[in-house]
Amino acid sequence: MKNLTVHEKAAYSLTAAMAALFLATAILAGALMGMLGDTEKEYSNYRTNSEIELSDLEKKKNELNAKLSDINNRIELAEKSKSELEAKIWQTETELNELKNSIGSSDQTYKKLNAQLSELEAELKAKEAEIAVLNNQVSEITRSYGADINKQYEILKQIYTLLENPAVKGAKISLYYEDLNRGYTLKINESAKYPSAGCLRTPFALSVFIAASNEMADYEKKLAEYEATHGTSDGLPSYKFKYDLSRMFTYTEDKAVSGTGIIKDSEFGTEFSHKELFEAYLKYGDPVAENELTKVYGTSLRKNFLSNIGTVAMKTDPSQATATDLALVMKQAYAFCESDAYYAPVMKDSMLKGVHNVMITPGIVGRDVIHGSGWADGAYHDMAVVDGDHPYVLVFMSDMTSNDTVNKYINKLASLINELHNAFYQ
Fold it and tell me: Do 384 and 295 belong together in one domain?
């Protein structure tokens, strides 16, 4: 074998080092490409599953910036017009003062200038009002785009990690979030069907409350018309209520039902108005109230309600529901609660004070949670509207059963959704 010179040895060493460096670089590049691929896949999933796409946010931002620019131009023109009006007013006031001091002043000229001054002052007031409206629009636009896409991505990664590792291994879970102001949504397995269980209480009560409120509004209108003709009255003669929630129910031994609720603990002979039955039904899931209310009002109102609002599973079979179905129900419930309908306060108070508040509610700190829950074999659900300046719908459905571990898991999910929602307004 040929002996290598010092220079040849150095050359071989350099070549070997470069080859090793190249190999290491290739390995590192491969690892980085793999990591990049994983990251891109995660980001792609984030954008697809959450429906909060960066391109949509950027498009909206550009649209708002264009609108903002247009409003600023209008403000500039309005301010210029305002300055011109102020100059004309000053000139007119000067002419009026000169006319007052003039020996040859005429009433006709004075009246003309005075009318002109009043007209200019009215124009100035209108222009100031226009500028105020435009400035309010600028403030609203400035507030309306503040979503931190990076922060949302980090929160969503935590949400997906939780969903991939449920409290009960192999559990089926569905999630639905919707910002009621801006329409942003996060939907996970939202079309999966579950037993609707106690979540049927909300559409049943709501459908009756809507009918009863409409009937009360009709009664009050007719009463006002009657009193306008006949004078003050104690009531409208011969008016018959179909949905009279003041009617009374007497709790007797044959109406007793074991299980949840509060009416079962009452003495036989205790009376409750139908309004009180609905409160017990919504707050406690009371079975005595449910039996009586279903017997009196039937389920046709609920059936029509579920069909009219566009539910899919519940429309054909109310015993089955999807997260999308329950979200539609809660949006209608919230709209009713915020209305001036006669029974809206009863509905809202009852849903705020529901006693089974161990799922979504503990994860939302400092805000009212209007909610309804349900549980049965293969069903453990909570559906809510988180109230406030920026309300949102949140529905959680699963085939798990209630225990401390499961409830804390749902609390954490609700807390993360609340963080995601707040990221839009920071």
Answer: yes
Residue 47 inside a domain? The answer is no
The verdict on 260 and 278 lying in the same domain is yes
Between 81 and 30, residue with greater pLDDT: 81
Contact 206, 333 (CB under 8 A): yes
Positive or negative: CA dihedral 122, 128, 129, 130: positive
- For 204, residues 6+ apart whose C-beta sits below 8 A from its C-beta are 293, 294, 299, 301, 302
User: How many Cβ atoms sit within 10 Å of the Cβ of residue 402?
Assistant: 14
Q: Which structural domain, as residue segments, surrounds residue 30?
A: 1-42
Taking the C-alpha atoms of residue 188 and residue 171, their distance in angstroms, rounded to an integer, is 14
Q: How far apart are CA 315 and CA 312, in angstroms?
A: 5
| pLDDT value of residue 151 | 78
Least confident of 33-37, 254-258, 286-290, 419-423: 33-37
404 and 126 Cβ atoms separated by less than 8 Å: no
Domain presence at residue 49: no
The answer to whether residue 80 scores a pLDDT higher than 50 is yes
Mean pLDDT of 310-314: 96
At residue 34, the 3 state secondary structure works out as helix
Q: What are phi and psi of 382, to 5 degrees?
A: -145, 135
**In this structure, what CATH number is given to the domain that contains residue 340?**
3.40.710.10
Q: Which of 392, 387, 384 is nearest to 180 (CA)?
A: 392
Produce one character per residue of 183-217: b if its CB has 16 or more CB atoms within 10 Å, e if not: ebbbbbbbebbbbbbbbbbbbbbbbbbbbbbebbe
* Upper half-sphere CA count for residue 234 (Cβ side, 13 Å): 0
- Residue 48's pLDDT is what? 54
Q: What percent of the chain is predicted at pLDDT more than 90?
A: 54
Q: What pLDDT, in 10s, does the model give residues 127-153?
A: 888 888 888 777 666 554 445 667 788
